[in-house]
Structure formats: C-alpha cells, structure tokens
Amino acid sequence: MIKEVFKPNPEFAKNARIKNMCEYQALQDAAIRDYEGFWGSYAKEKLDWVEPFHTVLDESNFPFVKWFEGGKLNVSTQCIDRHLDSRKNKAAILFEGDRGDKQTITYLDLYYNVNRFANLLKNEFGVKKGDRVVIYMPMIPEAAYAMLACARIGAIHSIVFGGFSAEALKDRIEDADAKVVITADGAYRKDKPYMLKPVVDEALNGKTSVERVLVVERNNEEVNWVEGRDFSYNELIKKQSNECEAEAMDAEDPLFLLYTSGSTGKPKGVQHNQAGYILWAQMTMEWVFDVKENDTYWCTADIGWITGHTYIVYGPLSMGATTVMFEGVPTYPDAGRAWKMVQDYKVNQFYTAPTAIRVLHKMGEHEPLKYDLSSLKVLGTVGEPIDPSAWKWYYEEVGGSRCPIVDTYWQTETGGHVISPLPGATPIKPGCATLPLPGIIAEIVDKDGNKKEHDETGLLCITRPWPSMIRGIWGDKERFIKSYFGDVKQNGRGVYFTGDGALYDEDGYITITGRTDDVINVSGHRMGTAEVEAALAKEDEVAEVAVVGKPHPIKGEGIFAYVVMKHSLKDSRFESYEAIEKELNEMIKKEIGNIALCDDIVFVPGLPKTRSGKIMRRILRSIAKGEEITQDISTLEDPSIVATIKSLVK
C-alpha cells in the first residue's frame, strides 16, 4: 500500500544542514566508498582531541571493534570546556521542576557545578578512573552534573531509572560492582513528594560493594542516614573547588553502562565507550534535529533511559545547544503543561514518545490551539513506531502542518539514531522509519545475510560497525556475541542484528514490523519477558507463567501474563483471583518497578508447549490479541489447551 508522502518544508530546507536527498545520497555514497575516511574526517572535525588517533577502525578482534585508536579526549570537556570561549553565558540547561521552579544554567555555571561535583567524588569518596558509580536520581540538574562529573574524572556511570525497585537497583549495583551510589532524598511528581533514598537503603541491605552514598536533598523529606556511608551532597559540595583537571581518556575507555532487559531474566549492562559515542551523539543532534546556535531544544525523556543520556545531556551539550530538562509530567496540572512550556521557552525542537503523544491527544485534543507554538521547527518521536492517527494530530495540531516529524529508530545498543528522516531532506511517510542515516549501513536480510526484496519481511541488521555501537555487555563477552552477532551471518561473519523485523517499500524506505524475540516495548521501554516472568514466579502459589505483549492504545504494548497456579483457588491462601492479581503486581512493583505492571493476568490450567517443553508464545500472543490461531497446534503436548485458554481470555 502506498502511503501519503509529506515533503520537506522548502523554507526550512533552505537552511538545513542536509538540504535535499541528493546531499543525503552523496554523504551515504561517500561512506560506502571510503568508510574509514568518512568517519575519520568527522572525528577530526567534531571532536577536540588531547592526542590524535592513528587508526580509525580496527576490526581484527570482531565484534570487539576499536574506533579512533590512539586518540585521547575527555567527554566532559567536549560538552563544556570547549564552549567557554564563545558560549560561557549561553544557557546550557533550562530546568523546570514539577512545581514550576526554574533554573537557567549557563555553560560557565555548568563548568563550575561539574568541577565541584567531580572534586567531591574524587577527593571525598576516592573515586578514580574506571570505578563504577550508580546514579539513581530524579530529573534534576544534579543528575546531569553527576554524569558529567564521572566523565570528567574517568569514572564509569550507570544510571538506574528512578522508578525501578530496590531489587532491580540491587541487581544493577551488584553486576557493575559499584563503589558509590548517587541519589536524592526524593523528588516531586504531580505536586506530591516521592522517595528515592529508602529504595537505596533497601537495595544496600546486606553485603555490598558500595562504600558511599551521596544524597541530594531535593524535597527535604525525613530520611534514614547511615553513619559513615551516607553523606549530604548539599553540605559537601560547598567546600569543593570550581576547578578540576579533566582526565585524558583513551577513545575506547568505557564512558557508561546502561542496563537493559534481555531475553533472559538477568538485565545486561550495555557498555558505551568515549569517542565513538560522543561523536555520533553530536552528529545526530545536528543532522536529525538540525539544531542551530540560538535554538532551544526539549527532549521529554528521563535520563534513566538511553534517550535521556544521548538527547538530553551528551548530544545537546556536545554541540553547544540549549537543552530543556523537566522534572514533572507533561499532563500535570493539565494537558496544556507541555505546550505552555514550548510557548514559554520558545522551544524549536520537541522530542517525545508516541505514548506521550497519545496521552496528550486523548487528554487535550485541542489544548495546543491555546498556546503559541510558532517557535517549533522540528517534531520528533522515539521508542516505538508512531500510529497514523497520533502522527496526524501531532503534525497538524502541534506542528501546524509545517514541522517535519523525525520518527527516529534506534536502541540502547546503538547509542544514537540509526534510521530517521532528515527534516530538510527526507520525504516523510507516517509510521515509516524511512532511511539509514549517512554512515549507517543498515539492511533487511534473511539469516544468511541475503538482502530482502521490497514487501518481504526480514531481519533488520547493521552490517558494518559504526562508532557509537555497543562495545560489550559488562562482564559477559559470550552473552554479547550471542545476543547481537549470533543470529545472522553475512559473508561468513556475524552482523549486528537489532532483534527487529522490518520490510522495504517500493521506495526503499524501511518500516519496522516489531520484535522478533521475547521483549515487550512498553511506552518505548524494552521489558524482557523473562525478567517479568522471573518476578511473577517468586510468588509461592505460581507454578508456571508466560508473559507476552498485547497492543495498548496508550503504551504501544501492554504486558499480558498467563499464570498457572499450584493449587485451585479454594486450596490456596487467596480469597479471590483479584487478590492474586493484586499480589502479583505488587511482586512486580517490588522486583522491577511500576513500568512492568501487568495490564492483564489470566489464570489458566496449563500453557501450550511443544513435546520438548518449549512454551509456544506465538500462540499466546495471538490469543492475547484476539487473533485467529493459524499455527499448527497438532505438535503440542496437549493441543486442547489452546481452546481452553481462548475460552478464559475475555
């Protein structure tokens, strides 16, 4: 089916960095013709090197590749110091709290705050190059200072989303063998305080590698202080120097870890390294959002996710932009909050998730008309494909039918966008990721690496290494190879498989068809089914459980659980199935966090399994979606279970 095409606004395109498809194609051709020359020239142009690199790309130990070997730099100086001569009084971060409190943090302010934070970590806590620091923070400026302070002294930060439970936090602390945790007493959400420090206390109960906990006193709630372990940021920061020499880091030294769900129950620590990551963060900011010197850019994500890392902190600051940081909820106190902020800050680029767009549409369809949104130039979406009705509202009501929508495709593992429209060049088809960015060699192939024809669903792979690609899974080389390079071979070598299916249309545009593994995309956040299943299985009364995704009108996908109980209801300790559902979701809340709560829990007598014991989740997905079962069920251990389950699903 041919989709409606929206061509770039000619006025916008005139001043865009990439002005038309001819320029796009010339860049992509240059990358294909001389791959190392393409990346090497951008690395020299965009990055400030302490020592120059001598080798652009070393693939001799593939997939453990090295980029810009021999080069030394520091990411915090890339984001701050180099801007001080020309931009020291320019706003680096515009912060707005949940309650409307505001801060303007200039590049000079940022420099001083980050240096003080770095000195605190180094001098008070003994944090040194290579140490792991876990950051469990709300969306406040100190979270950005903490990231950049770690980068300045060469510590490896691992941010854990502030909505995750103590158990999830503990798992990530233990896996990273973290020395320090940075947190806050709490924060505000919908004008109410919520607590973070008690979660940290619970996570650190028992033997732990953590020596110090640094607490930002944000909402001044009463918290427990452990003598010798817990320290007040607000007190210690007062005596720190404004100057801190930046550590010269090798291009391939680790910058951060970010834990993401996988197809096993244990989260995996995705490792990103210094030079390649910050190069692509800056390039994609310039190309995809086309941010200019006097623009104000707002990404609504949380820094606990990769979107917040790359497109709130590192990307905008590396190019010297002004980035908005927001603590609250875009729909509080009403559905006009986001549009009032766009109006007040004169936001030029607005980047959010389809989940948020659907909520804003549902809660305030005509709210955008109440505000002056004429400053907007580019709208962006992230996390999942955007459905046509949400796209249409976003384009017409928010963007006034003049702002291109960049529907960005990427992952925690890719570090930055890999497939996206370019706002001044790409004709856009709603719901379509469009084309790989220049320098990204993405292809839709079969398992043997053969390229698919148009309208044939295949496996979306990136067939050449790129600078911001994942460098490993922390402490687990075998899992890294198996997770990303074990499924698809091309010319006898494994290639990076995204885990997504996709297809080409008649113009060569790429449309993402969804996950091919057992991962659910909830509100743009990937949740491993195994992790959710492991949490549910901790309830003593649960014998077996299988979790699948089901389309959700707001979240994109919701979590649908099939639960087999050990005993009948009357022989269990529960009074009703509703009580069991409540208990199971409480278990998930404790083990993972609210993000993983089940939308549907159905109690079934058994699960559809092959004779070898493998659960047939494809069948369970079809039942959850209300689809006809087209798979052959004759090979199941008990084919009759399918009809039984169908009768129990409302």
Question: How would you portray this structure in words?
Answer:
By secondary structure, this protein is α/β, with parallel strands linked by helices. Among the domains are: 442-515, Luciferase, domain 3 (Roll), CATH 2.30.38; 519-648, GMP Synthetase, Chain A, domain 3. 31% of the residues lie in helices and 23% in strands. It is built from 20 helices and 32 strands. It has an eight-stranded mixed sheet with strand order 12-11-8-6-7-14-15-23, sandwiched between helices. The protein has a seven-stranded mixed sheet with strand order 5-4-17-16-18-19-20, sandwiched between helices. A four-stranded antiparallel sheet has the order 21-22-26-27. Strand 4 and strand 5 (102-106) form a beta hairpin. Helix 2 (21-33) packs across helix 3 and helix 6 packs across helix 7 (141-153). The protein is globular and about 75 Å long. It starts with 9 loop residues before the first helix and ends with a helix. The model has no long low-confidence stretch (mean pLDDT 93).
List keywords for this structure.
650 residues, alpha/beta, Luciferase, domain 3, GMP Synthetase, Chain A, domain 3, eight-stranded mixed sheet, seven-stranded mixed sheet, globular
Q: Kindly name the structural category.
A: alpha/beta
CATH class of one domain: Alpha Beta
Radius of gyration: 24 Å
Quote the beta fraction.
15-25%
Helix proportion of residues, in percent? 25-40%
The biggest sheet, with number of strands, parallel, antiparallel or mixed sense and barrel status, is: 8 strands, mixed
What is CATH's topology name of one domain? GMP Synthetase, Chain A, domain 3
What's the overall geometry?
A: globular
Distance between the termini: 33 Å
